[in-house]
Amino acid sequence: MTVAGHLKRVFFEKEALDYPLGKQIYQRLKDEGHQVQFLRSHNRVTGIPGNNPREAFFQGKSTLVVGVRKTLDFAPCKPSAHYQLPLVTGCEGICEYCYLNTQLGKKPYTRIYVNVEEILNQAALLISQRKPEITLFEAAATSDPVSVEPYSGSLARAIEFFAEQEYGRLRFVTKFTHVDSFLELDHRGHTRIRYSINSDRVIRAYEHRTPNLQQRLQALSRVIEAGYPSGVLIAPVILVPGWQRDYRELLHQLADYLVYSLEMDFAFEIISHRFTARARSNILEVFPQTDLPMDENTDRKYKYGQFGYGKYVYTDDLLEEMKAFFTEEIHRLFPQAVINYVI
Ligand code: SF4
Description:
Layout: E1 9-13, H1 20-31, E2 36-39, H2 53-61, E3 63-67, E4 76-77, E5 81-84, E6 88-89, E7 94-95, E8 110-113, H3 116-130, E9 135-138, H4 149-152, H5 154-163, E10 168-174, H6 180-183, E11 191-197, H7 200-206, E12 207-208, H8 213-225, E13 230-237, H9 243-258, E14 266-272, H10 277-286, E15 300-303, E16 311-314, H11 316-333, E17 338-342
Parallel strand pairs: 1-2, 1-3, 3-8, 5-9, 9-10, 10-11, 11-13, 13-14, 14-17
Antiparallel strand pairs: 4-5, 6-8, 7-12, 15-16
Helix pairs in contact: 9-11
This protein binds iron/sulfur cluster.
């Protein structure tokens, strides 16, 4: 699946054409028959239709913007990394629960930044400020950058850059399968590629326009064969009746696919479903028929947030049960794997 399949419109910032990558993407999109429109101003993407929240959302998800990253202040990215690496924002996937649904406005387009070398130079500066400590960068904090990798090539470039960094490491997580360009790279084990997976039931119900589980596991196997440190993110874990059976099945499928070896550098991250009141109202506007469980009075407790808004998480008892379940199953099926967290 590529972004082109869903692409309805493309906008370019004029300055993007000052960069080789901008020219290359422009030419490719033209060759594919896409109409390219130029934006008048960097921060205002006008021209995406949408008379109601649902239409605006879907039109945004079918829009690509190619531009220049102006601010090179990298946001922190706790707890999984020190900094975000901003190569792309947005994603063509349509996951009902996606965290980005409250971050990217009502028309969540995907934006590729073409000044990749400037972004990597900034990463080099941040690495040098912290050495000899290792500095970790997350490239998927506000996007699924693999979804547009066939156009941008920026992850492949970043993997090469980090291969040369003694004190810098890259990581990203994805549901998409465009990994071909990563496989031959001399990555030196400095990039960790994780796959976001879930039970078949959750994928089918809530993760629209994304590769299915089998496709993700095939891509994961390929990056493992290419020697990358790897892992899976199982999120969001949704605790509906039968969840133990569904997630046990998922872990078995993973074990069958991976031919897990004791030498593999493989890590698990497990995150339970949570939502804010704002996320829920956005989700209900765009997906009025959703059956994503978001009843704050059932199985949930309110957890106060750092910035004054809190979220609904599962009750302590349920979370304990979930932690015990995943810890036991993972240790049994993947004895040497690391569990980074179950939260
Ligand atoms: Fe969001 Fe990831 Fe789904 Fe894209 S694939 S919509 S980034 S959850």
